[in-house]
Amino acid sequence: MSLSLQMLGTGNAFAKKYFNNNGLLLDENYTLLIDCGITAPLAMHRLEKSFSDVNATLITHIHADHVGGLEELALTLKHVHGKKMTLLLPETLIEPLWNNTLKGGLYQEDAVSSLSDIFDVKPMQPENIYKLSPTLSLEIIQTPHIPGKNSYSLLINNEIFYSADMTFQPDLLISLVRERGIRIILHDCQLGGTGVVHTTLEELMSLPKDVRERIKLMHYSDEQPDFVGLTGEMEFLEQHVNYKL
Ligand SMILES: O=c1ccn([C@@H]2O[C@@H]3COP(=O)(O)O[C@H]3[C@H]2O)c(=O)[nH]1
Ligand SMILES: [Zn+2]
Ligand SMILES: [Zn+2]
């Protein structure tokens, strides 16, 4: 089995040198887009990839760097390719994604009045395992990010943890490694300041070595080059590089 990850971008919400932190998870017969932010359409174009070749898009939470490209994705698929994207998303996000984010741009009288009129919606719930292909399965874990906003991390094939955006959860990270045997942790990383809505590099550096050595850093600011060599065992993921997982 060969599973790989190619990030469309590894930047935070305000980065200008990096695209939004969205990724393509690829196995032999299946491509999953993890989040589709404002910059995702341009990043796909730069990689000479088409949304029509993506089997499904998964949404972790409703921030523009994670959902801001969905309007273009949906309209391109409908009007250029004549199809709907399969949209995997936690059930709690369906209503706010439509009413608070997408309805303004996608509503069309007698044609599009709900998320499922424009996407093939597949609601997800924590603790269920979703088998996307013979070699790719997914679980969602609700994790803290912004007070009052539902946000989710991912467990891929019961061996890879993808934090999406979350505040520092040391107990969760330690138990994922020591109790669930998680091999790789792909984690958002705020390089400076205090971790109010994200996890800081300083916080990740405080983790025990057996956890740190499984971590790859993503969702970082434009200052990332100043921090190369200062992250201990944890390496930065680079956008557009295809990593075997
Ligand atoms: O209380 C807050 C709420 C938000 N923010 C910023 O807005 C950004 C939204 O996208 P993000 O979740 O990738 O990152 C967030 C932060 O950069 C913040 O600094 N403090
Ligand atoms: Zn983000
Ligand atoms: Zn966020």
From TrEMBL:
Residues of the Metallo-beta-lactamase domain: 19-219
Entry's transmembrane regions: none
InterPro entries (UniProt xref): Metallo-B-lactamas, RibonucZ/Hydroxyglut_hydro
SMART domains given in the database record: Lactamase_B (SM00849)
Catalytic activity, as annotated: 3',5'-cyclic CMP + H2O = CMP + H(+); 3',5'-cyclic UMP + H2O = UMP + H(+)
Role, per record: Counteracts the endogenous Pycsar antiviral defense system. Phosphodiesterase that enables metal-dependent hydrolysis of host cyclic nucleotide Pycsar defense signals such as cCMP and cUMP.
Identification of the protein by name: MBL fold metallo-hydrolase
The organism of origin for this protein: Paenibacillus odorifer
